[in-house]
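Risk register update: the risk of archive-format incompatibility is retired. Evidence:
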Amino acid sequence: MGTISIRQQHNLGQEGAQGRLRGFEEQMSKYGATLEWKGNRAEVKGMGVSGSALVTEEAVEITIKLGMIAKAVGVDEDRLQASLQRRLGLALADDPGDSESA
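Archived output:
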């Protein structure tokens, strides 16, 4: 089992960053993972994955633990980490472009 840890700085404040994570959550749901929020913390749950997310005034930290199922289906830990880092960076970018919701 592997663990993926991602930390992304931002200038959005806690509420702004948490609002931007909605798009990131939608992308994660495509892979069967959900975030269950309690304040500024969330539990990551899904088939073969678990973990947590924390949103602060200056950063978002996400930790995902890959279970036996993820390993059995051949999830490449390095590729997954790079993909999640890129998607999180886009979600928290100063200019979200097309990902901005009304």
